[in-house]
Amino acid sequence: MSEWTLFFLILILFLVRLGITNDVFSFPKFWLPAFLRKVTKKGVLEWIDSALTAGIFALVFITLIGRLYIIPSSSMEPTLKPGDIVLGINKIWFNKKDKLNIKRGDIIIFKPPVDNKLYIKRLIGLPNEKLMIISGKLYINDKYIREDYVYNKDYYDYGPVKVPQENYFFLGDNRPNSYDSHLWPEPFVNKKEIKAKALIIIFPPNRIRILSNPFEKRQ
After folding, report:
1. DSSP per residue, 165-213
2. Of 9, 39, 112, 130, which shows the fewest CB atoms inside 10 Å?
3. Which of 75, 91, 181, 195 is catalytic?
4. For residue 62, which of 84, 80, 88, 99 has the smallest C-alpha distance?
5. In the predicted model, is pLDDT for residue 108 greater than 90?
6. Which run of H or of E encompasses 48?
7. Tens digits of per-residue pLDDT, 17-59?
8. Domain 71-212: homologous superfamily in CATH
Protein backbone atom coordinates (compact mmCIF):
# COMPACT_ATOMS: atom_id res chain seq x y z
CA MET A 1 0.00 0.00 0.00
CA SER A 2 1.39 3.40 -1.04
CA GLU A 3 1.57 6.51 1.12
CA TRP A 4 -1.13 8.22 -0.95
CA THR A 5 -3.52 5.26 -0.77
CA LEU A 6 -3.14 5.16 2.99
CA PHE A 7 -3.61 8.93 3.23
CA PHE A 8 -6.91 8.81 1.32
CA LEU A 9 -8.16 5.88 3.41
CA ILE A 10 -7.44 7.89 6.57
CA LEU A 11 -9.22 10.91 5.06
CA ILE A 12 -12.30 8.82 4.19
CA LEU A 13 -12.41 7.32 7.69
CA PHE A 14 -12.14 10.80 9.20
CA LEU A 15 -14.98 12.13 7.03
CA VAL A 16 -17.18 9.13 7.88
CA ARG A 17 -16.48 9.66 11.58
CA LEU A 18 -17.33 13.35 11.23
CA GLY A 19 -20.53 12.44 9.40
CA ILE A 20 -21.64 9.95 12.06
CA THR A 21 -20.88 12.44 14.84
CA ASN A 22 -23.03 15.08 13.11
CA ASP A 23 -25.75 12.59 12.12
CA VAL A 24 -25.03 12.99 8.40
CA PHE A 25 -24.79 9.19 8.12
CA SER A 26 -27.61 8.45 10.59
CA PHE A 27 -29.88 5.97 8.81
CA PRO A 28 -33.21 4.61 10.07
CA LYS A 29 -32.76 1.25 11.83
CA PHE A 30 -35.11 -0.54 9.44
CA TRP A 31 -32.66 0.17 6.60
CA LEU A 32 -30.03 -1.94 8.28
CA PRO A 33 -29.69 -5.75 8.13
CA ALA A 34 -30.87 -7.49 11.30
CA PHE A 35 -27.33 -8.36 12.45
CA LEU A 36 -26.36 -4.66 12.33
CA ARG A 37 -29.35 -3.22 14.21
CA LYS A 38 -27.71 -3.82 17.57
CA VAL A 39 -24.61 -1.90 16.56
CA THR A 40 -24.48 1.39 18.44
CA LYS A 41 -23.10 4.70 17.23
CA LYS A 42 -20.58 4.54 20.09
CA GLY A 43 -19.38 1.12 18.93
CA VAL A 44 -18.93 2.31 15.35
CA LEU A 45 -17.05 5.42 16.47
CA GLU A 46 -14.75 3.34 18.68
CA TRP A 47 -13.96 1.06 15.73
CA ILE A 48 -13.26 4.05 13.45
CA ASP A 49 -11.07 5.66 16.13
CA SER A 50 -9.00 2.46 16.37
CA ALA A 51 -8.67 2.27 12.59
CA LEU A 52 -7.66 5.94 12.38
CA THR A 53 -5.02 5.50 15.07
CA ALA A 54 -3.57 2.45 13.32
CA GLY A 55 -3.72 4.18 9.92
CA ILE A 56 -1.99 7.34 11.13
CA PHE A 57 0.73 5.29 12.82
CA ALA A 58 1.25 3.29 9.61
CA LEU A 59 1.40 6.49 7.51
CA VAL A 60 4.00 8.06 9.83
CA PHE A 61 5.99 4.80 9.82
CA ILE A 62 5.98 4.49 6.01
CA THR A 63 6.78 8.18 5.47
CA LEU A 64 9.43 8.78 8.12
CA ILE A 65 10.84 5.46 9.28
CA GLY A 66 10.52 2.56 6.88
CA ARG A 67 8.24 -0.04 5.38
CA LEU A 68 7.45 -3.71 5.54
CA TYR A 69 7.68 -5.75 2.35
CA ILE A 70 6.33 -9.29 1.89
CA ILE A 71 8.47 -11.27 -0.57
CA PRO A 72 6.08 -12.42 -3.35
CA SER A 73 8.32 -14.66 -5.46
CA SER A 74 11.51 -16.71 -5.64
CA SER A 75 13.49 -14.07 -7.54
CA MET A 76 15.79 -13.33 -4.57
CA GLU A 77 16.38 -16.90 -3.34
CA PRO A 78 18.22 -18.08 -1.39
CA THR A 79 18.67 -14.68 0.30
CA LEU A 80 14.93 -13.97 0.48
CA LYS A 81 12.21 -16.59 0.20
CA PRO A 82 8.52 -16.22 -0.70
CA GLY A 83 6.57 -15.21 2.40
CA ASP A 84 9.52 -13.58 4.17
CA ILE A 85 8.64 -10.20 5.68
CA VAL A 86 11.42 -7.66 5.31
CA LEU A 87 11.85 -4.36 7.15
CA GLY A 88 13.34 -1.60 5.03
CA ILE A 89 14.52 1.83 6.15
CA ASN A 90 12.97 4.77 4.31
CA LYS A 91 14.97 6.73 1.73
CA ILE A 92 14.87 9.84 3.90
CA TRP A 93 17.54 8.25 6.14
CA PHE A 94 20.09 7.56 3.40
CA ASN A 95 19.43 10.49 1.06
CA LYS A 96 22.35 12.81 1.82
CA LYS A 97 22.18 16.22 0.12
CA ASP A 98 20.10 14.72 -2.69
CA LYS A 99 22.65 11.90 -3.13
CA LEU A 100 21.60 8.36 -2.25
CA ASN A 101 23.97 6.61 0.14
CA ILE A 102 23.48 3.15 -1.33
CA LYS A 103 26.12 0.70 -2.52
CA ARG A 104 26.48 -2.20 -4.89
CA GLY A 105 25.17 -5.28 -3.12
CA ASP A 106 22.49 -3.49 -1.08
CA ILE A 107 18.98 -4.95 -1.30
CA ILE A 108 16.64 -2.16 -2.36
CA ILE A 109 12.86 -1.69 -2.46
CA PHE A 110 11.89 0.40 -5.49
CA LYS A 111 9.30 1.04 -8.16
CA PRO A 112 10.52 -0.34 -11.53
CA PRO A 113 9.87 1.28 -14.94
CA VAL A 114 7.69 -1.68 -15.99
CA ASP A 115 5.17 -1.89 -13.16
CA ASN A 116 3.29 0.12 -10.54
CA LYS A 117 4.14 -2.39 -7.83
CA LEU A 118 7.16 -2.26 -5.56
CA TYR A 119 10.02 -4.65 -6.37
CA ILE A 120 12.89 -5.83 -4.23
CA LYS A 121 16.23 -6.66 -5.90
CA ARG A 122 19.94 -6.35 -5.37
CA LEU A 123 21.67 -3.18 -6.55
CA ILE A 124 24.29 -4.09 -9.15
CA GLY A 125 25.02 -1.11 -11.39
CA LEU A 126 25.73 2.42 -10.11
CA PRO A 127 25.43 5.71 -12.02
CA ASN A 128 27.96 6.20 -14.87
CA GLU A 129 29.23 2.61 -14.70
CA LYS A 130 29.72 0.42 -17.76
CA LEU A 131 28.04 -2.94 -17.17
CA MET A 132 27.93 -6.19 -19.08
CA ILE A 133 27.22 -9.86 -18.45
CA ILE A 134 29.09 -12.56 -20.37
CA SER A 135 27.89 -16.14 -19.92
CA GLY A 136 26.36 -15.14 -16.58
CA LYS A 137 29.50 -13.42 -15.29
CA LEU A 138 29.23 -9.78 -14.25
CA TYR A 139 31.69 -7.13 -15.43
CA ILE A 140 31.70 -3.54 -14.18
CA ASN A 141 33.92 -1.09 -16.07
CA ASP A 142 35.51 -4.16 -17.74
CA LYS A 143 36.45 -5.69 -14.38
CA TYR A 144 35.06 -9.09 -13.38
CA ILE A 145 32.88 -8.93 -10.24
CA ARG A 146 32.70 -12.16 -8.24
CA GLU A 147 29.18 -12.87 -6.94
CA ASP A 148 29.45 -15.62 -4.34
CA TYR A 149 25.87 -15.03 -3.12
CA VAL A 150 24.40 -16.20 -6.46
CA TYR A 151 23.73 -19.92 -6.08
CA ASN A 152 21.30 -20.40 -8.95
CA LYS A 153 23.18 -19.01 -11.95
CA ASP A 154 22.06 -18.21 -15.46
CA TYR A 155 24.44 -18.02 -18.40
CA TYR A 156 22.95 -15.26 -20.56
CA ASP A 157 24.85 -12.40 -22.19
CA TYR A 158 23.83 -8.80 -21.71
CA GLY A 159 25.21 -5.40 -22.67
CA PRO A 160 27.46 -3.62 -22.54
CA VAL A 161 25.36 -0.71 -21.28
CA LYS A 162 26.24 2.47 -19.42
CA VAL A 163 24.10 3.28 -16.40
CA PRO A 164 22.86 6.88 -16.77
CA GLN A 165 23.45 9.56 -14.17
CA GLU A 166 21.03 9.28 -11.22
CA ASN A 167 19.97 5.77 -12.31
CA TYR A 168 20.63 2.24 -11.07
CA PHE A 169 20.67 -1.32 -12.44
CA PHE A 170 19.14 -4.21 -10.44
CA LEU A 171 19.30 -8.02 -10.61
CA GLY A 172 17.68 -10.75 -8.55
CA ASP A 173 19.88 -13.29 -6.75
CA ASN A 174 17.97 -16.16 -8.36
CA ARG A 175 19.10 -15.24 -11.86
CA PRO A 176 17.07 -17.71 -13.98
CA ASN A 177 13.83 -16.75 -12.19
CA SER A 178 14.12 -12.99 -11.79
CA TYR A 179 12.31 -10.36 -13.85
CA ASP A 180 14.83 -7.55 -13.46
CA SER A 181 16.84 -4.88 -15.27
CA HIS A 182 18.32 -7.23 -17.88
CA LEU A 183 14.82 -8.10 -19.12
CA TRP A 184 13.02 -4.75 -18.89
CA PRO A 185 12.63 -2.67 -22.07
CA GLU A 186 13.93 0.26 -20.00
CA PRO A 187 16.57 -1.34 -17.74
CA PHE A 188 17.34 1.52 -15.37
CA VAL A 189 15.65 2.77 -12.20
CA ASN A 190 15.77 6.48 -11.49
CA LYS A 191 16.81 7.48 -7.98
CA LYS A 192 13.41 9.09 -7.35
CA GLU A 193 11.84 5.61 -7.57
CA ILE A 194 14.04 4.20 -4.78
CA LYS A 195 11.80 3.77 -1.72
CA ALA A 196 13.76 1.91 0.97
CA LYS A 197 16.83 -0.17 1.76
CA ALA A 198 16.08 -3.64 3.15
CA LEU A 199 17.71 -4.17 6.54
CA ILE A 200 16.37 -7.29 8.22
CA ILE A 201 14.08 -10.29 7.77
CA ILE A 202 11.59 -10.05 10.65
CA PHE A 203 9.39 -13.07 9.81
CA PRO A 204 9.20 -16.08 9.98
CA PRO A 205 11.04 -16.44 13.32
CA ASN A 206 13.44 -19.11 12.05
CA ARG A 207 14.64 -16.75 9.30
CA ILE A 208 15.17 -13.58 11.33
CA ARG A 209 18.51 -12.09 10.25
CA ILE A 210 20.23 -8.88 9.22
CA LEU A 211 20.64 -8.51 5.47
CA SER A 212 24.32 -7.81 4.96
CA ASN A 213 26.04 -6.53 1.84
CA PRO A 214 28.22 -9.34 0.39
CA PHE A 215 30.64 -6.89 -1.23
CA GLU A 216 31.37 -5.10 2.05
CA LYS A 217 32.49 -8.40 3.61
CA ARG A 218 35.45 -8.51 1.21
CA GLN A 219 36.83 -5.17 2.35
Report:
1. TTEEEEE-SSGGG---TTTSSS--EEGGGEEEEEEEEEESGGG-EE---
2. 39
3. 75
4. 88
5. yes
6. helix 41-60
7. 777 777 666 655 555 566 555 666 777 778 778 887 877 777 6
8. Umud Fragment, subunit A (2.10.109.10)
Cβ contacts of 177 within 8 Å, gap of 6 or more: 73, 74, 75, 77, 152
Please pick, among 91, 121, 195, 197, the residue that the annotation labels catalytic: 121
pLDDT confidence of residue 8: 73
Round to whole Å and give the CA distance between 174 and 145.
17
Residue 181 known to be catalytic? no
Q: How far apart are CA 159 and CA 187, in angstroms?
A: 11
Residue 29 burial (C-beta neighbours within 10 Å; 0-12, 13-18, 19+): exposed
Q: Mean of the pLDDT values across residues 207-217? A: 90
Task: Please confirm, yes or no, whether 121 is among the known catalytic residues.
Answer: yes
Cross-strand partners of 90: 196
* pLDDT tens-digit series, residues 145-164: 999 999 899 999 999 999 99
Domain boundaries, the chain: 3-66, 71-212
As a whole number of angstroms, the distance between CA 120 and CA 124 comes to 13
